[in-house]
Amino acid sequence: MCSQHEKELDYYCQTDGELVCADCFIDEHRKHDVYRPDTIYETEKETFCKNTFEMLDKERSKFSLAIQDVSHAMSILKAKGEQTKESIQEHFQSLRDTLEKSENRLVMEAQNIVYLKVDKLSEQEKQLKESFKNLDTEVQYLYYLL
C-alpha cells in the first residue's frame, strides 16, 4: 500500500528500484522506466530462461565434444593396443622359429654324433666278436691237442 496515496502498489520503477502506485507513477516517476510487475516478471523470466538454455546448450556442446574426444582417444588406444599385440606376436613367432631351427640343427648334430659312435662301436663289436671267435677256435684246438 502506498503511504502517500493509500493505493495499491501496481507499478515498479526500475530507475528507483521501488514499487509505486498509479498516482506516484503519474506524479513523481513519469520520466522513469516504470513497468507493471507482471510484465517485469515475464521479461525477467524470459531473460532467465533464455540465458539458462544458452548456458545449458554450451554445456551440452562441451559434453558432446568431451565424449567425442574420449571416443577418439579410445579408438586410438584400441588401435595401438592391437598393433602392440601383433608386434609382440610377430616377435615371439620369430623367436619360436629361431628356436625351432636351432632345435632341429642340434637334433641333427646329436643324431649324427650318435650314428658315428654307433658305427664305431659296431665296428669294435665286430672286431671283438671276430677276436672272440678266433680265441674260441684256439681254445678248442688246444683241448683237442691235449
What count of domains describes the coordinates?
A: 2
Mean of all residue-level pLDDT scores: 95
Shape: rod-shaped
Q: Give, in spatial order, the strands making up the sheet with the most strands.
A: 2-1-3
Q: Termini separation (Å)?
A: 165 Å
Give helix and strand order, one letter per element, not per position.
EEHEH
Structural category is: mainly alpha
Task: Kindly describe this structure.
The protein has helices spanning 22-27, 37-145; strands spanning 11-13, 18-20, 34-35. The protein has 146 residues and is mainly α. The protein folds into two domains: 1-35, Classic Zinc Finger (Double Stranded RNA Binding Domain), CATH 3.30.160.60; 36-145. A three-stranded antiparallel sheet has the order 2-1-3. Strand 1 (11-13) and strand 2 form a beta hairpin. The longest helix is centred in the middle third of the chain and has 109 residues, at 37-145. The relative contact order is 0.04. The mean pLDDT is 95.
